[in-house]
Structures are given as structure tokens and as C-alpha cells.
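[09:14] KT: can someone run the structure on this one? pasting the chain below
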Amino acid sequence: MTTTEYLRSGPTDLEAVVETLCIAFDTDPLLTWNFPRDMANRAVHVAGFFRVTVQMILDHGGTVATTPNHEALGVWSPPGEPALGETDELRFAEALLAACGEGGERAVAIMAALAAAHPSDLPPHYHVMFAAVRPEFQFRGHSGAIGHHLALTANAEGAGVYAEASNLHTLEVWRRLGLRRRGAEIILPDGGPTLYPIWGDPGTWSLAGTRPTARRPPPSGRECAARECSRAARW
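[09:31] RB: done, C-alpha cells below
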């Protein structure tokens, strides 16, 4: 089975995509800052954030690449998109405010910070907004499959890849896939977390091993303590 067969792009079940994103990012520092765990109706607002954002990307030529049962997925925009005009930006912000409740202002602030930090001098590139694997499906090669699927698409067009890692573990996964840090860290206001812009030049990704393979699950608590192992990346 190739990566292209394993992952599919095109029309997707938006609610299944939202569910996976909510589960995969539940403890992510960015999401926890945007939606504190004691926030009333937190689950509803988190789902609203992902629903509005993914729909905006799809409405502007974006792609959701997902495994057959949405165990893992990636959401990205093609070169030049989303090209939001002033009216589109206002509508997107209004949709976030309506969907995210008390987290609306911070959701808008996140998107504004990403837009402001996005380098204007990059060559044509894909912009990855989300990449996620459900916790119970980790350590099975899904993150590599998503990355290689994106690499096949971008490399075929001679395009680069840009993304913002929301934590150091995700940053390391992207580095293993061939991307590198690009530009200054993005520090959100009000004690918010730090985001790490990353970049992959056209044609520089390794496409070996595109078939997902089973991997040994993480060691038990006893084994971990004995080996002093570090926590695995969630992505």
C-alpha cells in the first residue's frame, strides 16, 4: 500500500475531522491557552474553533488528507491560499468569535499572530494548519505517512512547505521529516505559548518508507522509569 492509497484527499466528513482534531490536540499548549480546561462548554467551543478554521481552509482551495477512518489527518492550503480579502478576514473573525465563546478573542489573536509572522519572501509553498493522530493510533507510522503524502504533493509542484509547530515535540517530528526552523518564534500575548515556524525547501523531503508500519508501543511506566526515557511526541 502506498501513501497515496493509504491517505485520501478531497471531499471529507467535516465532523469526523473535527472530532479527531479535538482529541489529538486536547492537551496541546496552544489549545489549553485558548480554551482553559475550566471554561464552561469547553468541548463545544473547541469543536467550533476547528470546524470554522477547517471550513475556511476548504473554502479557499485547501485540502484534508486523512486515513480511511480519520485516525490521522493533515489540513493544509495550496500555494497562494488562503488569500483572504478584508471582507473574508472579517467574516472569519466573526465566525470564530461566534463559535468559540469565551475563547473567541484568543482564537482571533492566534490567527492574527500567524498571519503577521508568515514570511512574505517565501517561494510558493503549502501551508500546514493542522496535523494530528489520535492517541490510540500513535506509534504506527501515521505521522510519517501524512508528511510523505504532503511531500509527494508539494514536490510534484516544485513547492515548499511551511508550518507552525505548537510545541517542541511536534517541532522534533517535523525536523525528522526534513523541515527546519524558519524565522523568529511566535510568542502569543497574555502569557500564551510559543509557536515555532518551520520550513521545507522544494524537493528536500525524504520519501523513503511511505508505507505505514507498525511500531512498538511506548514502554510501560516501570520500563520508562528504568530507562529514564522521555515522553514521545503526540503528533
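[09:33] KT: thanks! The radius of gyration is 17 Å.
[09:34] RB: yep, looked fine to me
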